[in-house]
Amino acid sequence: MAIKVEMPKLSDTMEEGVIAKWNVEEGDDVESGDIIAEVETDKATMEVEVFDAGTILKILADEGDAVPLGNIMAIIGEEDEDISDLLEEAESGGGSADESSTADDVETKADEKDDEEYDPVFNELDNNDNGQADDGRIKASPLARKMAEEQGISLSNVKGSGPHGRIIKRDIESYEPSRAPAAAATVSREDTEHRVSQMRKTIARRLSESKFSSPHFYETIDIDMQPVWDARKQINEVSDTKISFNDIVVKACATALRQHPDINSSWQEDRIIEHGNVNIAVAVGIDEGLVTPVIDNTDQKGLQQIAAEGRDLIERAKDRSLQPEEMEGSTFTVSNLGMFGIEEFTAIINPPNACILAVGAIREVPVVEDGEVVPGKRMKVTLSSDHRIVDGVSAAKFLNTLKGMLENPLGMVL
Description:
Layout: E1 3-6, E2 16-22, E3 29-30, E4 35-40, E5 45-49, E6 54-59, E7 66-68, E8 72-77, H1 84-94, H2 103-116, H3 120-126, H4 142-151, H5 169-173, H6 198-213, E9 216-224, H7 226-238, H8 245-259, E10 265-267, E11 272-274, E12 280-282, E13 284-286, E14 289-291, E15 294-295, H9 303-318, E16 332-336, E17 355-369, E18 372-386, H10 392-407
Helix pairs in contact: 8-9, 8-10
């Protein structure tokens, strides 16, 4: 009996998955436990395994296709088995990656338009008589663009013979470089379109919800980092695990959160939860956006352990090998852009946290000590807080505790 392979729920917030890679082809035999595909979710790239042996009779989604949760990805069964019923189910919405037109469908229709060499509505709205849209872009049919790219022809050198000067297939076929017009002073460049990844979709949704549902307010404090600078240098001279400034900030936050449980809280509509554990998420930038791996029980760990775990999480975040559970359960978040020279910024709260700390660069500035101007090292941090949970005074008290710890780092270990 044929078996459906449906898009599984690979994370708690997943609504659809994108086929990143098929490890099998139609006609391949598989055993229970075989990994047949890699799927990009909103949090990570996960492996999909099968639980039944058989032959891959049909693959219903191409690499790059988004498949809704529960829809059919593939069909497994015995060779030459009749699967017409399952294919009908897939075509009716049970397994189609996307019922809307694909990019290939659009291009095919555009190619058909090329053959007709006529697209009056498109051109009357978008073109002027010299083959350019009002925004300066060169107008050409999809097939003409594809042919030009394959042949290395710049569309700016081609004169269009379609309606309103649109470049069509025959213009590329008849193009001769020697007849190319002289280069203009400026060159129009084509836009580039990128597919929105599952991770970017989720980031957009979650941060939009956070920004517009949680009333944010911000408080900034300037911290003397010379004591941390000196302490870190001494620690790294004797430690096998190198400690970063961010590791020290994370440790200081964890210690300060123990004294300010209202900062280590979450809003639950009819109640506020003060978390027993201190689990700090560290924001990590990757190509697809921002991920927040979590160091559990941060307040109970020393600097070396925080540094080692943090480095491992960051490396695996960049490799897209983090598991969803490693990005869940945070009670507070630290986002550091100091390594990029950013002196001060505000961050959007990472739900369901009450607060997020934005950490800027350590600046070398003149400071006044005992009436004299001397060199100093300063760092600004900004706390974004959910006003439903945290009041201005509470946020200020937390920041002052954090400042005190960083200006007296020995106090964090006593």
